Prior knowledge:
extended, four-stranded antiparallel beta sheet, about 35% helix, ligase, alpha+beta, 3 domains, aa-tRNA-synth_II/BPL/LPL, 20 strands, aa-tRNA-synth_II, 19 helices, about 25% strand, O-phosphoserine--tRNA(Cys) ligase, tRNA binding, binds adenosine-5'-triphosphate
Amino acid sequence: MFKREEIIEMANKDFEKAWIETKDLIKAKKINESYPRIKPVFGKTHPVNDTIENLRQAYLRMGFEEYINPVIVDERDIYKQFGPEAMAVLDRCFYLAGLPRPDVGLSDEKISQIEKLGIKVSEHKESLQKILHGYKKGTLDGDDLVLEISNALEISSEMGLKILEDVFPEFKDLTAVSSKLTLRSHMTSGWFLTVSDLMNKKPLPFKLFSIDRCFRREQKEDKSHLMTYHSASCAIAGEGVDINDGKAIAEGLLSQFGFTNFKFIPDEKKSKYYTPETQTEVYAYHPKLKEWLEVATFGVYSPVALSKYGIDVPVMNLGLGVERLAMISGNFADVREMVYPQFYEHKLNDRNVASMVKLDKVPVMDEIYDLTKELIESCVKNKDLKSPCELAIEKTFSFGKTKKNVKINIFEKEEGKNLLGPSILNEIYVYDGNVIGIPESFDGVKEEFKDFLEKGKSEGVATGIRYIDALCFKITSKLEEAFVSNTTEFKVKVPIVRSLSDINLKIDDIALKQIMSKNKVIDVRGPVFLNVEVKIE
Ligand code: ATP
């Protein structure tokens, strides 16, 4: 905490001095917790749900009222709506199926099988029979069967499961049997039911919308088709409603998403639930795929289908594919990857990789950590001392009553060289998925590498870690280790850097995996010629 009064007094006396000196009160974060190794964490929404939300608001702005339609539709309704074409539509529907409930009796043979397992059946026979009967009748759920059998026979549930498996094989190898119920393949199946019921309850005209899931038994999923998708559908019922309402609604919706590039094309499909010549497809342009994508279909329901549902006014329906719209808005080339990114490759960008390059060893104690800063500054200042030469840094640490004098000696004995090698100021960058050490200046860099390194510096993400920074942390963490183990001297010698570990750096496994699988590189080569001798007294 700041000593506020002292600071204010200092500032009153000499503002400039106080302003500069109080700078040290703002403690910098330690290197592994510094930017870009820290990254803001925020939640992320799904593009499909975002589009659904935007479409809901768009419909509401246009005066529509929200409804939820039945998801499960009896095939009879499809016949009612499509007439002779129903089979073609049902072909794209999923039917709901379930496992049959076998009629299993408690024969003498079964009783003796249970008794062979060491269980007395006689006094429990009746309750066991009741359970089997209840299951057949549907009063007992399948997932309660084992528990109920175990309770009836007063045995453990493990034994109950064994009996089910060994004595009642009828429950195994059951094959699902289809019902006449289907999962809706488009919202229309539900609109007929909803509009029909509202006819006597709601004054005309009315404008309804629903954004919900539909299911299609597509032969195969592809870049614009999924087995399950969302339809943002609406129905307008009332005298005078016609195809022009469809065009206006399509424009109203799409223009709220910023689309100006769309076209209406009469649908070749000519579904029997639409009035002839009203079924129209809406296409929007996908800039990345460079093709027109069908995003919606609209039409006026046929008076034949409407009459069967007791509806005696025109109803215009428009069904817009949410995923298709999300694909175009978010510039996704494949609906499968957009909806289920978790099943596809996840690429870390350079910013992500930069947050994963960290110092391997960093001293824990503040005094030793702070010495690193001093060490780095001295090394940078004296890096070009002509050899033979040495740079000595001395420091005394107090731990309770004990004092430790530390002498760090950085030296170069060979004649005619510099104290430190030329790559000492190289900084680690992440560029195009590569982790690279980039020199301060490009003088003397081979022509073939220049372009790549220059681009790395201007377009890549800087980690803010130079070789000398990481190496000095290596020296000070070794010093900390020496204190703990009572070692009195040690040496650090790094002539040429070849890998991250040579300069006390590490990288997260997921970044490393990506670098390897994408044929990217970690190139931190370079001569640093660091020789250090440390003595502790
Ligand atoms: P397509 O010709 O592209 O297969 P469709 O003519 O069968 O589509 P409609 O029955 O008119 O589609 O459905 C209305 C809208 O629902 C389509 O314009 C489309 O945006 C969307 N849609 C239909 N089927 C799928 C699907 N399998 N996956 C994603 N969206 C779909």
